[in-house]
Amino acid sequence: MDKSCHILCQLPIKDRKYPSLSSKLDEIWKKAYDEGRFHLLDGILYHRTKHTCVIELTDRTLINTILHECHDSVAAGHLSEDRTLERLKTCSWWPNWKKDVAEYCQTCDRFQKANRATGKNFGMMIQI
Q: Which positions make up the signal peptide (predicted)?
């Protein structure tokens, strides 16, 4: 378990009177904690946004599994980075998750081969 996640599980989420523990949180976790985005329910840490409340992930193997299911699986169909982000934000959250999704999509060979470049076509060559 990640150090910051372990500290958050010890903190009463509704009561922010523990500056000694909250000061030990990493910067990303501290900002979300100060904004009241974490909820602990039945021992599971949830991250709340405007529209959803999703499970907090810290285990790298779980993160890779979720990325695989939301991008590589047959049901996912090697979605673009934006679509993978949209799909992921409905089920899970972890610090720097957008950066991880971008890296995962960029390292996916199948996606890079199938993804066609967008924009204008190159013009005709002009002989000098």
A: none
